[in-house]
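Homework help board

Subject: predicted structure for assignment chain

Our instructor gave us this sequence and asked us to write out the predicted structure in token form, then describe one feature. I got the tokens but I'm not sure how to describe them. Can anyone check?
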Amino acid sequence: MDPVRKSTDTSPAGSGRSPARTGPSSAGARPSPSRPGPPSAASGQSTGSGPSAGSGPTAGDTAPAQDRTGQTRRARRRERLLTTATELFLTRGYPATSIERICVTARVSIRAFYEEFEGREALLIALHNDVARSGMEAALTVLSDPATESADTRDRISALARAYVDAVTADPAATRIAFIEVIGAGRAVEDHRLLWRGLWTDFLIGEAARAVERGEAVRRDYALAMVALIGAVNELVGHWARNTSAFSPLMLADELVHHALAVLGLSAGPGGSGVSVEVDGVAPVDGVAPVDGVAPADGARGGLVDEGK
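My token output:
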């Protein structure tokens, strides 16, 4: 299955979701601007003493404006909670930040907090989901470019990595929350991270299959390799979030490209397709680089053997 379609179909909120808004949703995920807010107390009710028909707006005419006002007010309150939580998680750490502290700092009642989030974990999931979704959307945007569609695997992976890194590092504070504070934050948060990992695994397996079909990568089972690659991505981005002044996002993206191409058995050097790495003067066989100067036997595929091939 197409990894882009797969990532959309497996979304828990599945039905009605635009392909451009992929990824898991949660009780704590930020609402879409087009999602209707809570109805106004006066919504749809006649005052009984309003102007006659044709002489001005009726209660029914003003209700949508009232709804929009209520929705805007609630959206601002929600954003204030998320912004405050981000600041406190960064300064105090997630474990040491209580709901009460968030509400006092944001000047929001605890009752209002629970109107927006089921709990503290749901709020953290919302923050993580924003960053994870932005990364996936950036990847999908790159894939929608005809130039990327026809590009060789090296150029395609480079474009994907740079778009992803640009998206997830756009706000360093959000990056730190999504790649550091979520670790060990509870079962619900971990389940959410695992769901995203599953979506990205399918996505990357699809990219590997494309490279194989184009004759640019070795044919083998890439499932475990992609799980390992995702782990490397998370660790590298988390390392950048801890050391934003040590190296640039572009350096981070280039390192991710090296890792991704290595998983596919490709060098990061320019020119041509397929494996171009030689070890101690020994050329690769069937796209598999030699180990310790010894070329692999026929049928070997990156340490695995395709039986019956």
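Reply (TA_rk): Your tokens look well-formed. For the description, you could write something like this. Strands lie at 300-301, 304-305. That's the kind of observation they're looking for.
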